[in-house]
């Protein structure tokens, strides 16, 4: 009986250990997509040479923006990065490890990498601006480079967005 309990505990702990590290749907979205784009853009002969791969990664990261730029900051591919775990990216890629596995390993080193998500795009034909939060309304204005200076209530933000929609959206999006 004691031996059965012992083996049961070992098997349960191994199961939990193995499943906790694997990625779930939506985890490491930015990491996986960035590395897939990066691999597809790599010049021939670069993927097997670690030094060339590292140089091309730094060059690629220098021209990124948004969430991709943040990812590059986290892995240390930017001059202003605080830490550097580029070897954890470059070496596995040179061994032809898939981006999902590379990101899974990066998640163990720095959990912030897998918390990055791309912003969801708004379907302007079906969106009800009155149901969005003020934070989301402010984000829309910020993305457009606009400000609502005297806005204090949600209805004012909504009316400002409706006022600016024709200038920032194409007729096909409305």
Task: Please report the distance between the alpha carbons of the first and last residues.
Answer: 69 Å
Overall 3D geometry? extended
Beta-strand percent range:
under 5%
Biggest sheet, open or closed, and with what strands and sense?
A: none
Give the second-level CATH assignment, the architecture of the largest domain: Orthogonal Bundle
User: How many helical stretches?
Assistant: 9
Nearest-integer average pLDDT: 88
Content-based structural category: mainly alpha
- SSE string, helices as H and strands as E: HHHHHHHHH
> Strand tally, please?
0
Number of domains: 2
- CATH topology label of the largest domain: NK-Lysin
Helical amount: 55-70%
Provide the CATH top-level class of the largest domain.
Mainly Alpha
In angstroms, what is the radius of gyration? 22 Å
CATH superfamily of the largest domain: Saposin-like
- Unreliable residue runs: none
List keywords for this structure.
174 residues, mainly alpha, NK-Lysin, Transcription Termination Factor Rho, Rna-binding Domain, Chain A, Domain 1, 2 domains, 9 helices, 60% helix
What does this structure look like?
By secondary structure, this protein is mainly α. The protein folds into 2 domains: 24-115, NK-Lysin (Orthogonal Bundle), CATH 1.10.225; 129-168, Transcription Termination Factor Rho, Rna-binding Domain, Chain A, Domain 1, CATH 1.10.720. Helix content is 60%, strand content 0%. The protein contains 9 helices and no strands. Helix 5 (87-94) packs antiparallel against helix 6 (99-109) and helix 8 (134-144) runs parallel beside helix 9 (154-168). The longest helix is centred in the N-terminal third of the chain and has 19 residues, at 2-20. It starts with a helix and ends in a 6-residue tail after the last helix.
